[in-house]
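Why do we care about 3D structure at all? Because function follows from shape, and shape follows, mostly, from sequence. That is the central idea of this module. The next example makes it concrete: a single protein chain, its amino acid sequence, and then its structure expressed as tokens.
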Amino acid sequence: MTHHSVCDNGIITGVTKPSTRAERRKAELRREIIDTAFVCFAEKGYHATGIADIAAHLGIGHGTFYRYFSNKRDIIDHVIDDLATRIIEALGTENAPDAATSLEEYREQIDRIGTALTHILIEDRRVAQLLLFHATGIDDELTERLYGLLDTADTLTAGYLEHGVELGYLREDLDTLNTARAVTGMLMAGVVHGLRDMDETAIAALNEAIRRLLIEGVRKP
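And the structure:
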């Protein structure tokens, strides 16, 4: 049996910590099922992987699997939900769209957000690879959900830009929506390059170039 420990290379982390031993074990097994499913997806492909493959890798029965997930697609939805939650948490409080009140605060905010998103999106290559390269081939519903996430990212980014224009530290003629779409494209390209080359120096240099564009390209002259 191949056992892939969630502690060694976990895909998701719990948003809240379970309070009892039974709840902690349940949460741990849920994470192990997800992590093991991604091992199987990587070895055989999503469509060729069956529930039996996941259960066999983990050494559990089919019944145990179905107590946690309805099917293997349910696992993908759970991972996306967790990823979205972690990104939303990273964009709260001091990183919220209306938090910065000056260009300097905006610059510091961009630095914090860039660091947080890089960590979230590249810390486990399997998640980013699945979402960027494989998920649209799973089914139409998942494809539409990913497009919806893209639209949400555009809208959220536009909110940061609109706030800067309103307060006067970003240029007043800024096309906030299309600039936001361009920013989303840069971030996605940054993730792709990060997947191809995991060298931290190269990733840091690319992130710095993106941050400079996000400041120098939109700041008020």
